[in-house]
Amino acid sequence: MDVLNELSQALDGVLIRLRRELRDGLRREGIRLPPPAVQVLLLLQRRGAMGMRDVAVCSGRDKGQLTRLVTALVEAGLVERQVNDLDRRAARVSLTAKGLSTASLCARIERRALHHLCEPLSASDQASLTRLLRRCL
Fold first, then answer.
1. Which pLDDT tens digit goes with each residue over 39-87?
2. Alpha carbon of 29 to those of 22, 85, 90, 116: distances in Å?
């Protein structure tokens, strides 16, 4: 097997395990949100209010997917959408107080999952892995 196939399998395995850890952690805390919704909450927590186009780019979602996702988050009281008076097509989304507390809990769950996943690695190995992955991007 060549190195790129091994890398592909390793990355797949890490992502599957990370998603499982996140899903289980969210369930334990009673959070019933799909992973893309959690991704949007964490993105808004880390970057603050954003335009829908920016959220789409950062989350890798197309406009239709993101619109449905944000609508569900608005209905859940986690996100609010503000329409630009000058351009009604341009909307910004931000976390509500409930969304901020939910995002904070999701961030703690994500951190625990990452910590558990990276336990076998030394701090130096974790820093090297982070540097290498950033270089790939």
1. 999 999 999 999 999 999 999 999 889 999 999 999 999 999 998 777 7
2. 11, 39, 34, 17
Burial class (CB in 10 A: 0-12, 13-18, 19+), 70: buried
Position 32, amino acid: R
Enter the pTM of the model.
Answer: 0.84
d(CA 6, CA 39): 27
Contacts of 114 (CB under 8 A, 6+ apart): 18
What does the alpha-carbon distance between residue 133 and residue 128 come to, in Å, rounded to a whole number? 9
Rounded Cα–Cα distance for residues 75 and 69 (Å)? 10
